[in-house]
Queue: 2 jobs
Job 1
Amino acid sequence: MGPRHSNGHTTPPYNTILPESRVLIIGTGGTICMQEGPDGLQPSEGFMDSAMAPRPSFNDRSGPSLGLPAKHKGKDITVPSLRTPPTAYNRHIRYGMVEFDPLLDSSSMSASDWAAIALAVQQNYHLFDGFVILHGTDSLAHTASALSFMMNNLGKPVILTGSQAPIFALQSDAVDNLLGSLIIAGTFVIPEVALFFHHKLYRGNRTTKVSSASFEAFASPNCEPLARVNGLGIDVNWPLVLRPTTISPLSVATDLDTTHVASLRIFPGIKAEMLDAVLRLPDLRGLILETFGMGNVPGGADGPLTRVIKSAIERGVIVMNVSQCVAGFVSPVYAPGTHLGRAGVVFGLDLTVEAALTKLSYLLAQQGLSKAEITARLARPIRGEMTEMPQPSFSHPTSSLSAASERLTVEKSAFAALGYAIEEGDAAAVRDLLQGDGAQLLTQADYAGNTAVHLAAVTGNVDIVRDLLERGASVHERNKANNSPLFLASLSGKDECAQLLKQAGAHLSVEEIERGPWKSSAG
Ligand code: ASN
């Protein structure tokens, strides 16, 4: 579990009424909600009532029944809610659900369904702390990759999950996957599109489905998990978590060009005519070439394959090289790869095919981008989807337990020093403390759960708040009393700070609006 929650499940509750987080579950279909029909398994409606309400881990019957305001298909609605018993982090997760109509087997998901998911998140963004998307596993890695590119300046967790067996089956992975997703979405401000499966939270655009039957269905071969369930707690790998560093709210791109892209897997004996036929498809704008090993195709610099690729690139088609291997990266190390590079092929480093296709579709749909700009962006990470500088080894040294506990003490005193610097308005000291490894202080909090942004918001120093936000600090963290930095800034009359927080996407939660002394326009 992350440092700021290191005592989360050992300390007694700080008051008798525990705070609640709000999570919206968006049901799109998949095995998790399937029941046997005349032609085999098919998705069934009413998941919250039939699968969650009867299970004590999803339904703490002691809470008041509450309808939550939500948006569905652009309309204001009220969704029934349930809440979990207290989590190890001393909160309840209150959740409501909207379901797509029709619910789909994910093999039928298309770009318009991705857009519907992205819009559902955007329209409900100010009403919930996090989002859980129920989705079939077949095309889950594609949807997770697509959503990661579609959402710019995401500040809240969007967690996709599903299961290999229906929740109604005797032996199923559904309860573990759903409960883990709900707890993470309602506890940690991990502002990424992520995929939770079999006790691990992965960056969505790094995943690929590796088993059609095992509960361990997904892998993220080139990127460590963002978090792991570890007994009662959850270990978040905070240094890996990406955070927006521009002061702007969430924006969503819903148009992806999936109809003018293709992918083709090279195999021994592949004919140049075959590749040429694909590259000459009418309106084809981009091809993902799945090559051998580090990015090789048969033939030399002037071989027939390299020639048809070169001529397609000259006609304006973008060709990107990704490896057929699940782990590792492509690089022009061998002569065949070097020839492709000289022909103008973009090297996709350690991109998965899913991320390569959706990134290409996303960039092709951006208005006003030239081919050169698209090519340049394809070769660099935009949402953590690729490792910029491939290293010979991707293993990370692990520190010993004593080193970890020493670090924790050092971190605690460093956070205290940061708190003092903020209180004294010493912007230079704040900057110094946050250099290098000090950036980890942005995910920490004091005994009352106040992050650096909470402290700076109350002190009212706009320069310090701006500095924190530009370093990736979240505006959505809540302290133990469930207050956001914006709530504290507004309450203490720090209007300039409140304004800046709003520019960075902060808003009052529904419950803060009800609790605070404002008019309904305050959020
Ligand atoms: N065919 C199912 C789907 O992708 C597989 C699953 O969810 N496990 O919808």
Note: The CA atoms of residues 137 and 162 lie 6 Å apart.
Job 2
Amino acid sequence: MKLKPFDLVAAGHEGTLIDDSNMLFFKPSLPKEINFYSHIQSMNQQGLNLLIKTKNEFNEDIEPLNNWIPKYLGYMEEGIIAKDEKQQKTLTMEAKKIELPHLDDGIKVSTEKSVSKPYAVLENLLNCYKSPNIMDIKLGSVLYDLDASDDKKERLSELSSTTTSGSLGLRICGMKIKKFESVNYSQLLPFYHESTIDNLKNIKYISVGKQLGRSQSTLDQVKETLYLFASNHSLGDQWTYAILSNFLKRLELLMDTLKNTPVKLISSSILLVMETDEERVKKNSFEDVLIDDDYNLSSYIENYIDTEGENSLEEEGEGEGEEKIDIETLVQQMSLSKLKLIDFGHAEIIKTYKHSKFQADKNTLQGLNSLQKALELLISELYEQ
Ligand code: ADP
Ligand code: MN
């Protein structure tokens, strides 16, 4: 397996990588982020989730947090999958299953310092997308955790109080969107430039950095940028409407999750992703899933391609008449847009005690509330008159 730089990112630090199958995303991560992911993963492997119990029962209508974050495969240091004592067995299994790099491959990830940060190995959320628009929205008005230095606290308080972070609990952190000749990008001036994306060389992109969000101070401005984002395609109003209303539905479900999950996120983001490829969207008749299963689907497909001709995917049928799973059907089940929570460098799972009252993460929920308001306003202005 070879790793290469990945630049189809909406914001954040440099140094992210993907593998040659495009399924995995490697992010240099702080220990807190790795802890956060591995805690959730190990609960998941035991059939548990973080949802708090109500009236002595799990609330089965609520999506577990796991469905809102990228799938976590483990972590990697200098090309080696490190073996967490507890999870050694499962990680090794996962590593075999997806052939994560190991010592024999001799993969060295080039780093400046001799001791590098470990990489979190995550599902690449953009794997099945041909030409996605992506947007990163940072959540919370408090942007630092208790570990931050006084200097950092001061800097981030200032950043919050002078932007929509302070007033709305969210700030657009950046976006990459496909360039369409028919779209007018002037509202993004002077904060955008044309860019090329390493693995999408023949497609022109528009890249918007953090200065756009830093220049905004009202919900109206955020709303306008959201509209530009959602309508940045060539598929007409039907697709814009489907995108906006699906984002809104997902957001409402995610808020339910966070109201029932004992986590404290600091400086996490919402990542909005949507397909602009006409062929993919039309093939699916504009139909999208709310909660995607992209990682599993792409694993099946990858597996199918690997073994094509010999042992191709077959349904477990009895005896004769075994039916091949149609690869097209799998491809069509993959999402055309998604709303995910990412970036857990300062996130914590809160210990809950019996009988103690659970405190939901107000700081993060405030931002989600603002995003909900912006989406509701947009939908009603555009389509309900
Ligand atoms: P940072 O700590 O550098 O801010 P983030 O976790 O916010 O890192 O990620 C930075 C960017 O990388 C995001 O804006 C997003 O575009 C992209 N990204 C993050 N996670 C994934 C993923 N699992 N798959 C694909 N892209 C991702
Ligand atoms: Mn980030």
Note: Residues 11-12, 269, 343 surround manganese (II) ion (ligand 2) (CB under 6 Å).
